[in-house]
Amino acid sequence: MAAIAYEISGVSRLPRRSVSASEHDTDGDLIVRTAEGDRDAFEQLYKRYARPVFGLALRRLGDRFRAEDAVQETFTSVWRSARTYRPDRGAGGTWLYAVARNAIADRARARQEPAADPPDLPSTDPGPSEQAEDSWVSWRVHRAVAELPEQERVLLELAYWSGLSQSEVAEYLAIPLGTVKTRTRAALARLADVLEGELL
């Protein structure tokens, strides 16, 4: 992992803040401080997540060099997009894994790009009414997830928005796989109850 650079454009030139990032800071705190240009907070995030993100990328991409590129892209995006993180919408680790998932998907797409442009086809994009309905459904589901108990909400965020498997969720949260499965079933059942009738 030492070969993976994190020299993000502009980071090395930033002065260090007087308050050092600590291993006791939450992920969310570190992301908020990174958004303010705090180099120490960014470095602490890198130390926490570079290796797990690399492992996830390597499993998904099956190629060490592409996985390293995905890690580089992840932390470049974290540095540039930290200001978009909203603590009230989820845990910092969940947000960072979502950034990593997008970077990994980009690496996977780059490998699968077609050699030539496909012929023009009729658009299959949804129209305005479908887009409006999709937006409402998405908002309602996010709101319902936010109302779940934290231990259930975090599981769904990691699984469905960060794209982690149940085994990866168990490893990330350091809890047994059986516990992840049980809590996930309970969370989905609770969601179904909350949303019953609203999305029909």
Commentary on this structure:
The protein has 200 residues and is mainly α. The chain has two domains: 15-113, RNA polymerase sigma factor, region 2, helix turn helix motif (Rna Polymerase Sigma Factor, Chain: A, Orthogonal Bundle); 133-200, Orthogonal Bundle (Arc Repressor Mutant, subunit A), CATH 1.10.10. It contains eight helices and no strands. It has helices spanning 27-35, 39-61, 64-81, 92-112, 128-146, 150-161, 166-173, 177-195. α2 (39-61) crosses α4 (92-112), α3 crosses α4 (92-112) and α6 (150-161) crosses α8 (177-195). The longest helix has 23 residues, at 39-61. It is globular. Residues 2-7 and 9-18 have low confidence and may be disordered.
- Percent strand equals under 5%
Determine the structural class based on helices, strands and strand pairing.
mainly alpha
Mean pLDDT: 76
**Structure annotation, total helices:** 8
Approximately how much helix is present in the residues?
A: 55-70%
Domain module count: 2
Descriptors for this entry?
200 residues; Rna Polymerase Sigma Factor, Chain: A; 2 domains; 0% strand; disordered N terminus
How is this fold's topology laid out?
Blueprint: H1 27-35, H2 39-61, H3 64-81, H4 92-112, H5 128-146, H6 150-161, H7 166-173, H8 177-195
Helix pairs in contact: 1-2, 2-3, 2-4, 3-4, 6-8, 7-8
